[in-house]
Amino acid sequence: MDTIDRELIALLRDNARTPVLTLAKKLKVARATVHNRITRLEEQGVIIGYTVRLRSDALDQGVRAITSIGISGHHAAEVKHALRGHPNVVAIHTTNGRWDLMAELRADTLEAFDRALNAIRSIPHIENTETSILLSTYKM
User: Fold this and answer.
1) Are 95 and 101 in contact (CB under 8 A)?
2) Which structural domain, as residue segments, surrounds residue 23?
3) I need a surface site. Which of 63, 86, 106, 111 has the fewest CB within 10 A?
């Protein structure tokens, strides 16, 4: 991957719907070059998909939180497997330091969030948790 690929990816991250001709003008390369690079990046699995970003107030997102999870022994794979099937878990992140995993959670109401958190805390081998409810999100 070279500088043009990295600049192309940055432009696509900003707006994946930017027309190829506009991308070519910004990168100062031919339209066919941009098209070929996007195709190559997709085929190589560098670009695995495109998504929609929404304003934080566009949808009622309910309660969002990050739960830090401590796991007893060497049971991380089992805990990740259990979390992967939980409907309130949006993402699971491994980390270093005090916590073994970070789970992103979402629920429609505080009551539903409380039930989800209690269910997660009851998963075997979860030794300790610490949860922070997300109040606001700012794009950097």
Assistant:
1) yes
2) 1-42
3) 111
Amino acid letter, residue 116: A
CB 65, CB 120: distance < 8 Å: no
Residues 76 and 122 in one domain: yes
State the Cα angle at 55 between 13 and 83, rounded to 5°: 80
Tens of pLDDT along 46-80? 998 887 776 655 556 689 999 999 999 999 999 99
DSSP state of 115: H
One domain, residues 65 and 28: no
Look at residue 34 and tell me whether its pLDDT is greater than 90.
yes
pLDDT value of residue 43 = 95
pLDDT, mean of residues 93-99: 93
